[in-house]
Amino acid sequence: MLRVLITVIAMSLVSGCGQDGGDGTSSPAPVAPAPADESVQLTGKEAYELVCAECHEEGIDGAPKTGDRDAWAGRSWLWEAVLFEHAKQGYMEMPAKGGDESLDDTAVEMAAEYMLNRTFPDVIRAD
After folding, report:
1. Which domain range does residue 98 map to?
2. Reported confidence tier of residue 110, pLDDT bands at 50, 70, 90
3. How deeply is 123 buried, as exposed, middle or buried, from its count of CB atoms within 10 A (0-12, 13-18, 19+)?
């Protein structure tokens, strides 16, 4: 009985699609989906996984490994600002923006912040 009721309702809905609205107008034509918004902002994790993880997960070319406090030891107390600048501009073996110039500065900073949070989860940083 329930199947019959669902089938009747579905047929009623489908039969009304594209019909004249009774006022001489027809239903509007389907609209194509809008193109993807190229300004969609990646999360820090997404940007990290897309660009940074390739070197920072394994410590390739001297990149300090994410999550390894010792690998990050001996850096300046100003290192967060320096880290962001190096990530954006490049430093030693690391190319600017990890080699992906399509990343905006915000995505790069969010990726760096993600690395910091994974490496130093107990350190509270100012927003």
Report:
1. 44-119
2. very high
3. exposed
Does pLDDT of 13 surpass 60? Answer: no
Residue 86: inside a domain = yes
Residue in 71, 64, 69 with CA at minimum distance from that of residue 87: 64
On whether the CB atoms of residues 52 and 44 are closer than 8 A, the answer is no
Among 71, 44, 66, which residue's Cα sits nearest to residue 121? 66
User: Does residue 77 sit within a domain?
Assistant: yes
36 lies in a domain? Answer: no
Tell me phi and psi for residue 26, to 5 degrees: -105, 170
Main-chain dihedrals φ then ψ at residue 13, nearest 5 degrees: -65, -45
Say how far apart CA 96 and CA 88 lie, in whole Å.
5
Summarised one tens digit per residue, pLDDT across range 33-74 is 444 455 568 999 999 999 999 999 999 998 999 999 999 887
Residue 78 located in a structural domain: yes
Query: Encoding tokens for residue 30?
Result: 């389907």
- What CATH number does the domain containing 80 carry? 1.10.760.10
